[in-house]
Amino acid sequence: MRIDLASAPGHQERPNEDWVSAAIPASGGGVLVVLDGVTPPGGDDGCVHGVPWFAARLGGRLTELSGSRRDMPLDQVLAESVRATAEAHRDTCDLSHVRTPQATVVVVRWDAQYVEHLVLSDSVLLLEAPGGEVTAVLDDRLDRIPREVLGSVAATDALRNAEGGFFTAAADPAVAARAVTGRTPRGRVRAVAALTDGASRWTDTFGEGDWTQCLAVLRKEGAQGLIDRVRAVESDPARPAARYKRHDDASAVYAEL
Ligand SMILES: [Zn+2]
Fold first, then answer.
1. Which of 92, 105, 135, 205 is most solvent-facing, going by the fewest CB within 10 Å?
2. Where does the record place the PPM-type phosphatase domain (predicted)?
3. CA 244–ligand 1 middle distance (angstroms)
4. Rounded to an integer, what distance in angstroms lies between the CA atom of residue 157 and that of residue 70?
5. Mean pLDDT in residue range 47-51
6. How far is the CA of 38 from the centre of ligand 1 (A)?
């Protein structure tokens, strides 16, 4: 087994709100958790702790429960982790605030029999079969909303964790039912990768290569290698379209099972 991960802030002066972990439980198999903390525009979020605190709490709980409760399906793991994280600041913070700290989620868990996955919001999961074909698992709800709508803070807030909008892990455990979940026989998966949108933009925004090529970069150059390539495109004066996209926190984890 080989696991390689990297995470880089979008701006040196701001904290990285991505959160990444890999665990190899004593019981065998493995767990990957990748969160992208959502920074809503407009400042106030009703929370005294901030998004990095929230992502660390939620990510820690997801990692622990995924590894210790193999009997618990990943959507239940997510529901319980959201509930426990909400409890940790219910007394101090306004959890009903529409911009309460929230995060996109990818969880992958494998054992000798299955590779299970859960994807919520716009982080990307890649599954590679032994023959080399790559399947991208996406929750495309955010992509279905027109870009011009997402340019408005009020319109985006109205769609945040609302029917017909997009869903992130915030303070309501019921969001777990919205996650894209599945499992694949272990023998049909050779490698997995999870990317926050700051890293997946190498493929889905900049079109530097398809998902198969993205996985090949991760294998050959590592997670940091992919992030370095994203940063190079973002600062390339010959790619003005890329330059207008601000740097974002970027994280990638790659595991050969
Ligand atoms: Zn709080």
1. 92
2. 12-204
3. 32
4. 36
5. 93
6. 14
**Edge-first strand listing for the sheet containing 180-185:** 18-23, 30-38, 102-110, 114-120, 180-185
Positive or negative torsion for Cα 195, 110, 32, 167: positive
How far apart are the C-alpha atoms of 58 and 17, rounded to whole Å? Answer: 12
Residue 205: pLDDT over 60: yes
Between the CA atoms of 76, 251, 5 and 78, what dihedral angle is there, to the nearest 10 degrees?
-10
Neighbours of 72 (CB within 10 A): 14
Would you call 112 exposed, middle or buried from its count of C-beta atoms within 10 A (0-12, 13-18, 19+)? exposed
> Tokens in use for 71?
């009997």
Cα 44 to averaged position of ligand 1 atoms, centre (Å): 12
Six-digit token string for 59: 């990510």
Q: Where are the alpha helices (DSSP H) in the chain?
A: 51-68, 74-87, 147-150, 153-159, 197-204, 211-234, 240-244
Q: Place domain 2-234+248-256 in its CATH homologous superfamily.
A: PPM-type phosphatase domain (3.60.40.10)
